[in-house]
Structures are given as C-alpha cells and as structure tokens.
C-alpha cells in the first residue's frame, strides 16, 4: 500500500518542482521584455493586441479566467490601463495579483515620467496623474523595466532566479548594442521638428533629440475637428509628421476618416506622413529589438 501511494505522490512532486510562473501582461511591448527575462521558466499571456490602443482594450470575459490563474501581473502603470483593467482584476478574485502583493508589478516604477501634471484638470483631455504613460517609446526604458521584471520574477520564483539574472544580462547587452546603432541612425535627424497625432512619442523624441510640441489631437484622447486641423496646419512649419496605427472605433487613435484628415496638414506643408504602430510588435516585418528607431529612421525620414 505504501509503495502504491508513492507511485501517486512522486509524479505530483515532480510536476510541482517544474511548475512555471504564470505571467499575465497587459501590453505586448511589456510581454516582449517579460519573455526575454522569463524564457522557458514562465507561461506568458498578453491581454492587449499590438493593434489595440492600450487605453481602450476590449475587456473580454476570458481575461478574467486568465487573471484568476496568474501568479504575477505586469501592468504598465501610470493609469495606462485604468479604463479596462480594474473591473477584470475585481472579477478575477485572485489575491496573488492584487495591489500591494509581490505578484502585482507596476512596470513604470523607476522610470523618469514626463508630462506629470501639477494639477489634475480633466478639461485638458486624457491627462494622467503620474505622467505620460507611453514610456516604452524610449527603448532605453526597456532596461529599467527589464530589471524590475527580473527582480519580481526572482522574488516569486527563487529557484529560477539565476536564469532570470542571466537572461537580464543578455538582454541588457543586446539592447545596449542596439541603442548605439539606433542613435547613429537617428543622429542626422537631431533637432528635426515632428508633428504627431497623439502624444505617444514624447519619450522617443526626448531620447533621440527630436522636437515635438504640436499634436493633431486638440487634447490628449480627443479626436481632431477639421477646424483644429486647419489651425494646426497654419501653425506648423514642421518637416515631418508621424501618425499611429488605426485601431477600433472606440480608441483615441485615428479612425479611417481621422487618418485621412491627419494627412491634410502635411500635404499643405509638403511634409512626409508616416503611419507607425504604437507597439513594436505591431510591425511583423521588424525583428524583435529592432523596432521604432529603425522603422522611423530607415523608412520614414
């Protein structure tokens, strides 16, 4: 009887010893870094699709099931997901990933946030109290996020910590090499004035010394009217213009008609129009770690 019991217990112990950390991530860009750090030691699920505006993700009921089974949740933070994630977390009823637990990770921690408002005024549009949440448009911030994720993974799965640390070092080395390459690619465009649809690219502009202070949205998250676009054209003497990927009609990014309108100012000034994904994973033609900077420098300028 004891031998028979051992036959049942031993497989259970083996399975438990090799259980992977179940990681749920809100956005694909953060998922890409989590994959680099976790490797084969994690099971990874990204909730948002690359073509979705992270402000307005379609909160599917299946997400509640995924969150219920998660051992860790990686969230962008700075209220990026505030419009859809809280009800899902409440419905998941998973104490492991509630605020204040090791399994609840805000990836913006340690990031120098831009556009932090002195006071909150919703009349100014979709303003975030903690600052502009699109910090991942600066590739260098990926190193900060990666360290934060590695630390969280080590705390939750100490047995795999050596693997996480080794993966972190590998990721940092490859990213440093890419950063050097990207800076050389964009160096000829230093100081170039850029107009964007949404203020997604502010971190990118700061990282690569681009000038960006005019947006086609009159306020963050508010679609532009023809009158505003006409005014933007009158103000703009910009050399180039970056748009963003079309997503569904609830999103604050260009609808098909908005994309047509957004081209009007650049046509009047003879500038170029570039339509870019707001997520590196949104362009399947580009390999991992070869996203925004090469797309902008190599194709758009």
CATH class of the largest domain: Alpha Beta
Radius of gyration from the alpha-carbon trace, in angstroms: 22 Å
Biggest sheet: strands side by side, in what order? 2-1-3-4
Mean pLDDT score: 79
- Into which percentage range does the β-strand content fall? 5-15%
Number of E-type strands: 8
Distance linking N and C termini: 75 Å
Major β-sheet profile: 4 strands, parallel
Second rung of CATH, namely the architecture of the largest domain: 3-Layer(aba) Sandwich
Number of helices: 10
Helix content: 40-55%
Low-confidence stretches: 237-260, 265-270, 282-288
Please identify the structural class as seen in this structure. alpha/beta
Number of domains: 2
Description of the structure:
By secondary structure, the protein is α/β, with parallel strands linked by helices. It has two domains: 16-178, Nitrogenase molybdenum iron protein domain (Rossmann fold), CATH 3.40.50.1980; 190-300, Rossmann fold. Helix content is 41%, strand content 12%. It has ten helices and eight strands. The strands form two sheets. The chain has a four-stranded parallel sheet, covered by helices on one side. The chain has a four-stranded parallel sheet with strand order 6-5-7-8, sandwiched between helices. α2 (28-38) crosses α5 and α8 (226-235) runs parallel beside α9.
What is the topology?
Blueprint lengths: L1 H16 L3 E5 L2 H11 L3 E5 L14 H8 L3 E4 L9 H8 L11 E3 L34 H16 L4 H26 L6 E4 L5 H6 L3 E5 L10 H10 L4 E5 L11 H14 L2 E5 L15 H9 L1
Parallel strand pairs: 1-2, 1-3, 3-4, 5-6, 5-7, 7-8
């Amino acid at each position: 009887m004891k031998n028979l019991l051992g036959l049942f217990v031993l497989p259970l112990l083996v399975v438990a010893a090799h259980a992977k950390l179940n990681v749920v991530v809100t956005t694909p860009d953060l998922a890409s870094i989590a994959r680099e750090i976790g490797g084969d030691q994690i099971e990874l699920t990204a909730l948002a699709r690359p073509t979705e505006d992270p402000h307005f993700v379609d909160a599917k009921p299946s997400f509640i099931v995924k969150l219920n089974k998660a051992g860790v949740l990686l969230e962008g933070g700075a209220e990026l997901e505030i419009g859809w994630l809280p009800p899902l977390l409440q419905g998941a009823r998973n104490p492991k990933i509630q605020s204040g637990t090791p399994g609840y990770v805000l990836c913006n921690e340690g990031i120098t946030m831009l556009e932090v408002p002195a006071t909150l005024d919703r009349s100014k549009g979709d303003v975030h109290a903690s600052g502009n949440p699109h910090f991942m448009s600066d590739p260098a911030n990926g190193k900060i996020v990666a360290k934060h994720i590695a630390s969280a993974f080590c705390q939750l799965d100490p047995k795999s910590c050596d693997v996480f640390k080794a993966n972190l070092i590998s990721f940092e080395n490859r990213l440093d090499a890419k950063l050097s390459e990207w800076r050389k690619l964009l160096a000829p465009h230093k100081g170039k004035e850029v107009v964007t649809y949404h203020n997604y690219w502010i971190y990118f502009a700061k990282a690569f010394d681009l000038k960006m202070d005019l947006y086609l949205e009159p306020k963050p998250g508010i679609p532009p009217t023809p009158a505003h676009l006409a005014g933007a054209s009158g103000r703009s003497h910009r050399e180039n213009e970056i748009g963003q990927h079309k997503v569904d009609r609830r999103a604050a990014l260009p609808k098909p008609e908005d994309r047509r309108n957004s081209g009007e100012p650049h046509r009047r000034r003879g500038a170029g129009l570039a339509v870019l994904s707001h997520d590196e994973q949104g362009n399947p033609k580009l390999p991992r770690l070869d996203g925004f900077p090469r797309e902008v420098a190599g194709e758009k300028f």
